[in-house]
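Report of the visiting student (M.T.), summer placement. My assignment was to run the structure pipeline on a short list of targets and document each run. The first record concerns Anti-sigma K factor RskA.
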Amino acid sequence: MSHIDPDVAALVAMGEPVATAAERAHLAECAVCTAEVASLARTVSVGRSAVGDAALLTPPPRVWDAISSELGFDETPATPAPPHAVRRGSRPRRRLVLALAGAVAAVAIVAGVWTTANLLTPRPDIVSEATLDGFPAWQGAEGEAVLEKVDGHRRVLVTLDASIPAEGYREVWLIASDGSALVSLGVLDGTTGAFAVPDDVDLSKFTLVDISQEETGGDPGHSGDSIVRGELTPA
Ligand SMILES: [Zn+2]
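After the run finished, the structure tokens were exported:
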């Protein structure tokens, strides 16, 4: 197998038991993946402990200079000073270094959480959008559809704004632009929903999004009673 997935490595580093047997076997043998997990685990533990200043980077001198001048500690001697002057200055400086270490730890936690969140939730790319217009029998009905790609798969997000009857249910469809074929994406429960588009559906052909009113226990096909419909166009 190839190296383990970065998402899995991040979770393993956080101590989550997510690795498959094959991934664990790979980890046991692969120095590259082991080093990656170890490095991520160090970041996680620095973020979690927030006290281990030994593991934290020492800020460069200009950071200290900026903080000390901001807080009025400008008396830091530029030339060798008598021993007592150094002693006097050392206490506030130590406090400040500890405060700074805390700030660096906080940044490490935020950066760690941000990185982890981004690893775990791939950002969707919006591919196309449709404004869904109401059919004459459904005066005032309207909606929207967004086709997005997330993690290599496509899904349609729909919203429906219509006064819908208590009986029956609403079903979301993709319809070929020439009306020759249709694919059911699923039942819309409420006013919004997200529907996975099967990977084998050719979206250059199925460009219409349709929401229909269906009868409970009725024919599994489209009832012919469309509430709204619209054409997906590139976003
Ligand atoms: Zn590997």
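Residues 83-120 form the longest helix (38 residues). The mean pLDDT is 81. I thank the supervising group for their guidance throughout the placement.
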